[in-house]
């Protein structure tokens, strides 16, 4: 039977947008621009360490702990470079500001294949749509710069919501913003726990974007799996 869906919510990172290059390469380019020498491999590892430590200490961009997401990210960038052996405060803060700004733009993000066509077709079929993303408040701007913002009625980030997926409360806020009951909404995302299972736990339908061979052992019925974004409408209208 055809699902009686009225509303679709979307994850962003690795569902609609992806980074153009690994984070370490962006950081390395910034270092080169300032004549700072660092090993590319070290930067990638340092970023993972700095980001992990900051996320544990200040979950969800420090929301509720007195940090702005901007301060949160500036600290991550500076710590990434410190762990890679850069210790000059003036150049650290300059590089951090530049990278914070660059990750807000289409310079560092690209739209995934099939995303524009799929979003356009969903809107043509009359679906209303919103974004539910574990992201900071730059996301509106990122989506605008990548020319996707106009597809969505709202952009709900974990920073705005005060809760990060898989916490069901971010999905409940999205349903409230959309004005629909959960059974008339579906979430589309690439993460089994944060997207697929979390949306189902609040009573929404859910579709998992998943490349072939990825996590096949997880319990997801085939009619909920998207090998490509472009398969979405066929699954909804089955």
TrEMBL record:
CDD domains: HAD_dREG-2_like
Organism annotation: Aramus guarauna (Limpkin)
SUPFAM superfamilies assigned to the protein according to its UniProt record, in alphabetical order: HAD-like (SSF56784)
Name of the protein described by the UniProt record: Haloacid dehalogenase-like hydrolase domain-containing protein 3
NCBIfam families hit by this protein: DREG-2 (TIGR02252), HAD-SF-IA-v1 (TIGR01549), HAD-SF-IA-v3 (TIGR01509)
Similarity comment: family membership: Belongs to the HAD-like hydrolase superfamily.
Pfam families the record matches: Hydrolase
GO cellular component: nucleus
InterPro entries: HAD-like_hydrolase_domain, HAD-like_sf, HAD-SF_hydro_IA, HAD-SF_hydro_IA_REG-2-like, HAD-SF_hydro_IA_REG-2-like_cap, HAD_sf
PANTHER family from the UniProt entry: HALOACID DEHALOGENASE-LIKE HYDROLASE DOMAIN-CONTAINING PROTEIN 3, PTHR46191
């Amino acid at each position: 039977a055809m699902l009686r869906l009225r509303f679709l919510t979307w994850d962003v990172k690795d569902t609609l947008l992806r980074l153009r290059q690994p984070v370490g390469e962006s950081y390395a380019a910034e270092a080169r621009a300032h004549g700072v020498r660092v090993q590319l491999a070290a930067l990638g590892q340092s970023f993972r360490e700095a980001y992990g430590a900051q996320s544990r200490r200040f979950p969800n961009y420090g929301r509720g702990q007195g940090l702005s997401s901007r301060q949160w990210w500036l600290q991550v960038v500076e710590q990434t470079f410190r762990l890679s052996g850069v210790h000059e405060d003036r150049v650290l803060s300059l590089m951090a500001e530049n990278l914070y700004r660059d990750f807000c733009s289409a310079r560092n993000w690209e739209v995934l294949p099939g995303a524009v066509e799929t979003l356009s077709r969903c809107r043509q079929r009359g679906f209303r749509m919103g974004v539910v993303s574990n992201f900071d408040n730059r996301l509106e701007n990122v989506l605008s710069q990548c020319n996707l913002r106009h597809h969505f009625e709202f952009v709900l980030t974990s920073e705005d919501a005060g809760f990060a997926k898989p916490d069901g409360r971010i999905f409940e806020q999205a349903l409230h913003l959309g004005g629909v009951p959960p059974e008339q909404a579906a979430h589309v995302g690439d993460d089994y726990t944060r997207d697929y299972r979390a949306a189902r736990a609040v009573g929404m339908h859910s579709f998992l974007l998943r490349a072939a061979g990825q996590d096949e052992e997880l319990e997801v019925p085939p009619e909920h799996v998207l090998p490509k974004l472009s398969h979405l409408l066929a699954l909804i209208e089955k």
